Amino acid sequence: MIALRSVLFNTIFYVNLIVRMIVLSPYYFVARRQDAYRIPKNWALSSHWLMEKIVGTTFEIEGMENLPDGGYILAPKHQSFWDTYALLPWLKDPVYILKRELMWIPLFGWYAKKQRMIPINRGARGKVMVEALRRTKEELASGRQLIIYPEGTRRPPGAEPLYKYGIARMYRDLQLPVVPVAMHPGLFWPRRSTMRYPGHFKVRILPPILPGMDPDAFFAHLIEVTEKASDELLVDTVERNPNLPLPPTATRRLAELQKVNAATA
């Protein structure tokens, strides 16, 4: 039954995305940019509804009060495609730094260009990265929110953290608060898998890390607070969903946490 629900959800999810992009394009491309953003935000909400109704997966968000006014950097854990769009409805005017190849995709790339997303060549250095930073500063100066994944790529739940130092450089150069986000959508929407699992989980928005710290100290602090919350939510999620199949990384991490708790008890 879960496999059938997964196939049904995946099919409707992508049909919903493509049809909305085609049908609503006339409005999207003539509307004011901020007004046009309602289309991807509403699509995100509809995707949450589909996942709840078809798969049986729900979530709750903790810590909305930790989102600052104006510009900031949102730094979520990255485990699945779900977390690339999940928080869109609750962010005022987010901007992403994207692989430039994504901008070449018909419709998607046009939509991203309309929202002034920032394409980069990941293999480039020098002038290209300087230009990307200039564009980022320009967008955030107008009060937008940059979404950047500190680990760079999707990681399975419970995996050893592998943060990239680029987030510390952004923190130093942009002089804006960084808001860590811990969550485990990868337990319900695993990377590199078509399976979708029912259950309930939390998204935890942590207090912002204010500008002014030494970049190395910031980097260590970001990892510490994010991973502490991530461990707490991993335990909470598994307790709430005892029948959820776990990847080996999550099983190992839970065993490690149990040993630590037993040693300190």
TrEMBL record:
The chain crosses the membrane at residues 12-31. One of its GO terms (molecular function) is 1-acylglycerol-3-phosphate O-acyltransferase activity. Pfam families: Acyltransferase. Pathway: Lipid metabolism. This is Phospholipid/glycerol acyltransferase. InterPro entries: Plipid/glycerol_acylTrfase. Residues 72-186 form the Phospholipid/glycerol acyltransferase domain. Its EC number is 2.3.1.51. PANTHER family: 1-ACYL-SN-GLYCEROL-3-PHOSPHATE ACYLTRANSFERASE. It comes from the Bacteria. It is an enzyme of class 2 (transferase). Keywords: Acyltransferase, Membrane, Transferase, Transmembrane, Transmembrane helix. GO terms for biological process: phosphatidic acid biosynthetic process. It comes from Rhizobium favelukesii.
